[in-house]
Design brief:
about 400 residues, mainly alpha
């Protein structure tokens, strides 16, 4: 016990929770935005991975990679919610994490092939290394938080064995072990990182900055939407200009605008509001942001893949094209519905019904081209966003978007 008390950083790097500095600490810092730049590239790589899915194992790997990248970003967001990014030590940590994140991102396209071990080592190193840094930072300044991070390190070490073993074995063993690994990562948070020796953590008591965590998640939604423009734009300029491709480009832009509108017009700010008024902020943030938002981001990424494929081949169907055209917006709306249900925001039924409507568009593929089905899905997204806003205006609600 005495050794533990003597270890760790004496300097207090924790985010100010009261006083004049607390308002500054609630704001997203520029170094956090610098860290996010790595994930702009990561999302483009993920889109390419998804676009080339041609089997069940490759589809499973694509889902695992999306979940893994989100967990990297989300866990680092928790870190900057605890630590003060204005401190030089914290800035240095984030820049180091960004570099490791870049290595992870560079490995994505060959993550199940020749770069599997590089991906696994970088991913595990980032998760474990960041958590060890948090253990050192909280040792003298937050005993309960320090215990939580020690529990977290044990879970990341456990999943790390599966990540690295899968990379070494390759093939179907990689797929199975990586599914196990990402399941361990997500399950750990769900059970508050319970361990046999240290017991169950107490995430419910975490004193989180509601404004910070809500803004961080919102900014990632913007990043994901921006990635759809990026991959669609590259696909458009690489091909011959035709009427079909022009319509596909218009569809891509309007679908991104509709998704932005549906998220930011009245759904987004309810998260911050719920965290500020809720007693168990850690549990609420875990459900609304760590879990619900990965579904939202997955839907946006899949929609971006659809836009890229339709722009590239507006008259040619493939399995991934059909899945992404109707599945992307449906997954996005499902994620929004889950998020709104958790934070008590209105419009849950609207999102669920619209999501089911997206799936009902699938049979159109038998008689219509990809660009026409894409335009139909976009029209439904636009109508959903418009209806959601109309209901808000009728109720006298205000938008912060």
């Amino acid at each position: 016990m005495s050794n533990r008390a003597n270890s760790g950083l004496r300097v207090n790097l924790l985010r100010p929770s009261s006083g004049s500095d607390s308002e500054r600490a609630d704001r997203v810092s520029f170094v956090e935005l610098f860290f996010d730049l790595v994930f702009v590239f990561a999302l483009t790589q993920l889109s390419d991975v998804v676009a080339h899915v041609d089997s069940v194992p490759s589809g499973v790997v694509a889902v695992v990679l999306l979940l893994a990248m989100w967990w990297l970003w989300m866990q680092t967001t928790w870190t900057t919610n605890w630590l003060d990014p204005q401190r030089l030590e914290v800035r240095g940590l984030l820049i180091a994490l960004a570099f490791v994140g870049l290595i992870v991102s560079l490995s994505l396209q060959e993550a199940s092939g020749e770069r599997a071990l590089v991906f696994a080592l970088a991913y595990v190193g980032l998760q474990v290394g960041r958590t060890l840094a948090m253990i050192a930072a909280t040792a003298h300044h937050d005993r309960a938080g320090n215990a939580d991070f020690r529990r977290m390190a044990a879970w990341f070490a456990l999943s790390g064995v599966a990540w690295i073993a899968g990379a070494l074995l390759g093939g179907i063993a990689l797929v199975v072990l990586w599914v196990v690994a990402v399941a361990i990562d997500y399950l750990g948070a769900a059970v508050s990182y319970r361990t046999p020796v240290l017991g169950r953590g107490d995430m419910e008591r975490w004193d989180l900055s509601a404004a910070h965590i809500a803004e961080r998640a919102s900014l990632f939604v913007i990043i994901a939407l921006g990635e759809t423009f990026l991959v669609t734009g590259f696909a458009f300029v690489a091909e011959e200009l035709t009427v079909e491709r022009s319509l596909a480009l218009v569809s891509a832009f309007l679908s991104a605008a509709a998704m932005w509108w549906f998220y930011f017009d009245q759904g987004e700010w309810w998260g911050e509001r719920r965290l500020k008024k809720g007693a168990k902020t850690g549990a609420i943030a875990r459900a609304a942001y760590a879990y619900a938002h990965v579904v939202i981001i997955g839907g946006i990424v899949l929609t971006g893949v659809a836009d890229k494929l339709v722009v590239g081949k507006p008259d040619s169907w493939s399995t991934i094209a059909l899945v992404s055209i109707v599945g992307g917006p449906a997954l996005y709306l499902l994620g929004c519905a889950i998020f709104r249900r958790i934070v008590g925001a209105p419009g849950v039924v609207v999102a669920v019904v619209a999501g089911l409507g997206m799936l009902a568009l699938a049979p159109l593929a038998l008689v219509a081209s990809p660009v026409l089905v894409s335009l139909s899905a976009t029209a439904l997204l636009v109508a959903t966003a418009a209806l959601d806003t109309a209901v808000r205006v009728r109720r006298g609600g205000k938008s912060r978007g």
